[in-house]
């Protein structure tokens, strides 16, 4: 009789404890949109490559970022939720007469695979975004120089 009471108590306790536990799936995690990932913080270019290689004399260069001086590699971009895009010259400018900041508009394409930039100085630029998280991004764009079309791929990182 005593064993039966202990077994019943243990069974009831087990049922009550498992019935009162909260399900870990009870609150769904809201998904973050690509626009929300872009907004906030300064995006800096950490790597940039070109394909095909850019020929400088007889040397083929694919690491485009290595060609730029620090007055360019310290530049950054910011995206605001209201569609404003800011290009900032960073700590150093190559030409002291250049404005520190240039402002334009940005938007995502309807399928959210591209960022479309409209800037006063270079009017219109489109970046494909094959990879985007809230802290890292990969962009791809086309550039034509001397009749050759280059695919420029940049790796960006949100620095703050």
CATH class reads Mainly Beta
SS field, number of helical segments? 3
Approximate strand percentage: over 45%
Question: Averaging pLDDT over every residue, what do you get?
Answer: 84
Q: Output the radius of gyration.
A: 26 Å
CATH architecture: Beta Barrel
Q: Largest sheet, order of strands side by side?
A: 1-3-4-5-6-7-8-9
Order of helices and strands: HHEEHEEEEEEE
Largest sheet, if any? 8 strands, antiparallel, barrel
* Terminal residue distance: 68 Å
Topology of helices and strands:
Elements: H1 2-20, H2 34-38, E1 43-56, E2 59-63, H3 70-73, E3 76-79, E4 84-88, E5 101-108, E6 114-119, E7 123-132, E8 136-145, E9 148-158
Pfam families: Lipocalin_4 (PF13648)
Domain Lipocalin-like: 41-135
Protein name: Lipocalin-like domain-containing protein
Descriptive labels:
160 residues; alpha+beta; Lipocalin; eight-stranded antiparallel barrel; 9 strands; Lipocalin-like; Lipocalin-like domain-containing protein
């Amino acid at each position: 009789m005593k064993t039966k009471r202990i077994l019943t108590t243990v069974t009831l306790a087990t049922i009550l404890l498992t019935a009162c536990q909260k399900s870990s799936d009870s609150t769904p995690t809201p998904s973050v949109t690509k626009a929300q990932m872009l907004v906030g913080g300064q995006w800096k270019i950490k790597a940039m490559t070109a394909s095909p290689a850019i020929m400088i004399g007889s040397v083929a260069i694919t690491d485009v970022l290595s060609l730029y001086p620090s007055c360019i590699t310290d530049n950054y971009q910011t995206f605001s939720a209201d569609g404003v895009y800011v290009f900032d010259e960073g700590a150093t400018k190559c030409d002291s007469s250049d404005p520190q900041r240039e402002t334009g508009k940005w938007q995502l394409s309807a399928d959210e695979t591209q960022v479309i930039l409209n800037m006063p100085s270079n009017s219109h630029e489109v970046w494909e975004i094959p990879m985007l998280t809230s802290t890292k991004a990969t962009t791809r764009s086309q550039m034509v120089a001397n009749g050759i079309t280059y695919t420029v791929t940049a790796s960006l990182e949100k620095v703050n």
